[in-house]
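Listing S7. Sequence submitted for prediction.
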Amino acid sequence: MSHNINSSHTGVPTGSLDRFRIFAAFLVIAIHVSPLSAINSNADFFLTRILARLAVPFFFLVTGYFVLGKESQTPEALAERTGSLLSSRVRRFLFRTGLLYGVSILLYLPFGIYAEHYKGLTAGGFLRMLFFDGTFYHLWYFPACILGILLTVFLRRFLSGPLLAVSVGLLYLIGLFGDSYYGLAEAFPPLAALYEGLFQISSYTRNGLFFAPLFLTLGSWLASGIASYDPEVRGSADPDWTTQETMSLSPVKKRLIKNAPDRRNILPDLFGFVVSFALMTLEAFLLRNFSLPRHDSMYLFLVPSMFFLFRLLLFINRNPSRRLRTVSTWIYLLHPAVLIALRMIAKPLHLTWLLVDNPLVQFLSVAAFTTALSSAITAFFPDKAATRGQDTTWPEFSGSVGRRAWIELDRKALCHNVNYLQGLLPEGCRLMPAVKANAYGHGAILLSRELNRLGIDAFCVACAPEGVRLRKQGITGEILILGYTHPSQFPLLYRYHLTQTVVDASYGKLLNSFGRTLSVHVGVDTGMHRLGESSQNLEQLQSIWQMEYLNVEGVFTHLCTADGQTEKEELYMKHQVSAFRRVISELEQRGCSCPALHLLSSYGLFRYPEFSEDYVRPGIALYGLLSNKADTEAWGASLQPVLSLKARIAAVKPLYPGESAGYGIQYTAEEKRTLAILTIGYADGLPRSFSCGKGSVLIHGRKAPIVGRICMDQTIVDVTDIPDVAAGGYAVLIGSWGDCRITACDWAEAAGTITNEILSRLGGRLERMWAES
């Protein structure tokens, strides 16, 4: 069940797992109702004893994937636990699972007493029920999960990959001969006696000792196969195997990494699942035919079936849904109670013939009522974590309480800017926002999600890892990589449906040699002399269209003087436009289709909207600014800044005459002053050149000058003339407070640079969130 486990830590969009949880919960209901038993016994056997047997292993796989998948066996990670066998993540999960088990025991206690489940119960029987069998028939999962995790973590601590695989495989094999293959074990008296002894401890071998560890381990390995090495190349089919982290991986994990799911090459896993499940079906019917099973939860081919099924689910790109996770947990917990209640009310309503004697109707009724009840509980008692909008790839949260230093984003301002820029576009032209450099420091995931919601379905980034991060967080639409991608990362382009810029013809050959079809836009150098094949080299440009594995979906150039105001700069820009259009005309005459054209970015759109083609690539303008104060006032007056930057006040203290503050004692008080220490420094992107009074912040709507040198993590400001300043308050570094305002343009002007640089250098440890409206 893996109730409410965060499904983002691997970075892969795992909403498909959340959706399959609902289906798996329905399969568990089917096991307990046998909905097809009155129609066809073979069909019911297939549904409840074969297909439905995928459900619980799936829950264990999900738990291993999210709870144990972050566990590392490197010496550094072990040292980080300061000798503790269990990480804090595992401890939290075990606590929540134990708590849920305890609540479930109390919930089903009246039902158990009514059904006389506990009649004549001995102390040994109580312990067996509590730690193995469960106090009600479906509650066995919880002690199995707890015991399975404890055992798996213990084994992982002391065994390497191959030995761990052998160990959990051997445990599963022991369980197998006490379950569906019991008839074979029973034929040998010593084995039969051994299993009879085991059954005195646990009524079944599908428990936390024999059943759970294999699937928990497999789930953790699948997570490691996607997320265990450097996130910059995560998912690459050819990671750097010389790093300390990858070298510490076991051979089993290395194979899993090398064979991590390829999002376009689904056929091997689909074939693997179909074949494995078909063999599992044959296995189950043969075992039944020979009357071998004592129980039927464990099959040999269940293991490969689950492996391929889980990988298939990872192909499906869906956003995580905590709500679905919560609903599936409640369905699992409540369906026996709903089943009992349905049977109780059927008799007085004279509906026993329908709700009890008709198993298919009973199944549908239990599923419907349990889902409705579970949804209502989830709606009335929402999980607070589900409403925070957290993004675990980047530190982007909502709510500033407890934050050190943070960025607040104005959703209304972003929407206004999008609408305003779209209003400048000619008919048929669309926005392709530049969300590179973490969306100019704003937070690429948060911004892109909102842009998706606003109908934007094309983005451009600087490099493959930026595109991968967007895809792994569920961003849809075209993602164009404007820069160079190293050949070792070509698999990322293919796997995550990223569109690569062909930076010149020779690079096109390199891309083509990858041997799989890639979507590309062709860069044309019309005079900037940066990336792009020269507009003079028509033969070279034409050759790109002739490359077998390159699917040309666009052509673009970059205008290097669109922001210029001199006649020379304007003439050069028009020369670039002319060269680009000439190239496009020549290519089309040679039979080279140019589906999407684009050459304008923010300044080009404001100054020369008539040169818009199929796309415009706004960057700084999207965020409510232009590159400097003069241009923002001249052209960007209709834009609204999206970003505000704030920092916590850590302390307020006096500085007496003759005392100095900060590194290098650059500030000395001539009279008594009051200083506030802010929890932000140059490591967060605050220019060190703002030191010694050259910069200021806003506190209580008034400016407080920076005194002394800005430190890496703290900044000192003078608040002598500002009343009621106290530790725990905050300062505004970019943004407004009352009638006072400090903008990124002010920062850029003071630092002698442009707003693009100021914003894109805002540090990764700044927490990003939507401002509360």
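Caption to Listing S7: primary sequence and predicted structure tokens for the chain studied. The first helix runs from residue 15 to 33. The chain has a mean pLDDT of 88.
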